[in-house]
Amino acid sequence: MAQKEKMSESTPSTPDRRSFAIPKAVIDALIGSQTDAITIGAYLTLAAHTDMTGQFSTAGLKAIRKNLSIDKPRAQKAIKALAEIRASTPPSNAVISTPSSSKKKLRLIQPTQSSCPIVYTREQWLTEGYPPPPGPEPTTEKVLREDPRIVRFVLPTFDEPLQERVWIGSALVQGDDLMEKPLRGLKDCGDVAARLLVVLYKAQDLLRWYGIPPCCEGFFEHRYCHYTEPLDGGHSVLLAKPQAVYGNTPFFMRLLALQKDQDFKEQKTKVWDAFTALQSMGFLYEATCLLNRHPTPFIQEKQPGDDPSYHGGIDKDADLLCDLSYDGIGGPVSPAEVPICDSYRLTTTDFGHSIYNNRLTLPMALVANGAPAMIAGLFRLRYRVRNPLNAFIEEADSTHLDRAKTQLNQLNYRRKIKGLDSLMEDTLKIHSTLQYSLMRLNLV
Q1: Quick check: 259 and 253 in contact, CB under 8 A?
Q2: E-strand stretches of 72-216
Q3: Global pTM exceeds 0.90
Q4: Residue 369 — φ and ψ, nearest 5°?
């Protein structure tokens, strides 16, 4: 996935369209050292104020204190902790240099050790013998403290290409209409929640899942109990009732730095509490989705008063077909998220079936008889990268919107056979490479 440019530098007008990147090695180091929420918030603040290389940060203690609502001693303690956390980097023999002209592109200045701190203060960086960071030199302590152009911290990139780092929407640091100070909210969710959030950013797969991979990939999924009710014309209604959210034990143990199963049994509630807190605060929301595989393992059941049902996990080869509905504070956040559960429900009613009088709130879909299908809840990050100038966002949004279009086309084909009018979604805002434009789905 190619990254066209760094949004924090290229589009300064709207905070929700800016973004920044942090190395995967840093996230691994933060988890490995069991870093607390304040220290993680401090790093995110510094990273959100870096230049286009993602390395030189102009943020200072004032920004950290403001974003996390903490006093100066706690901010200083967080910086000290970041300077002590080390991450591994491949050996490098590259020539270290700085641009001789402001028109030339910056060359990354990389430490050559096998590991180094994830954050250097300006003084520490110069003490190590590296060239001065770009930008003006502070002439006095007051200039160093107050001039917004001064590079105050250096964040090594650990030789990770910009497009391969973990990308985060700047609104996570700068706030939006949902949360004025998200990092303060993250601090209030606790240390485990802060570590969980950065791991989820690292795990995010927008192209395949348009969010966080489900449990089959090692994270979370909301499992549903399914009921299929046949209709005439070779189609069935897939009706689903929420059951439980499942997680991955090895992932939980890594997040808590646990080695023994008995420790996990005692402390796993910390992860569930953190997960719930992130949802309640609005960092995560759930998308109820239609997938193209049966649940696995396949379990046949007979419940009193219900038709045969089945439930289980998500097949490792499953793919996302479309979004059905959303649940959670602040979601959905992208114009490419098109829920079509109501379209399925309306079509079933138009077909003359009234089998849902007492189930109108349950997720449902119309599927071809014999075709594998299941409904699952997948989780998405609210403060993710949203600017279409990021190449991978353009591709992910286009792919996800096409999924909805395909399912709506199939639904309208079934309606056409029945002599019913086609359903048209409302005009959607989708992006081009230069700006958001209005476009209507071309449904057959």
Answers
A1: yes
A2: 86-88, 115-117, 120-121, 153-154, 166-169
A3: no
A4: -60, 135
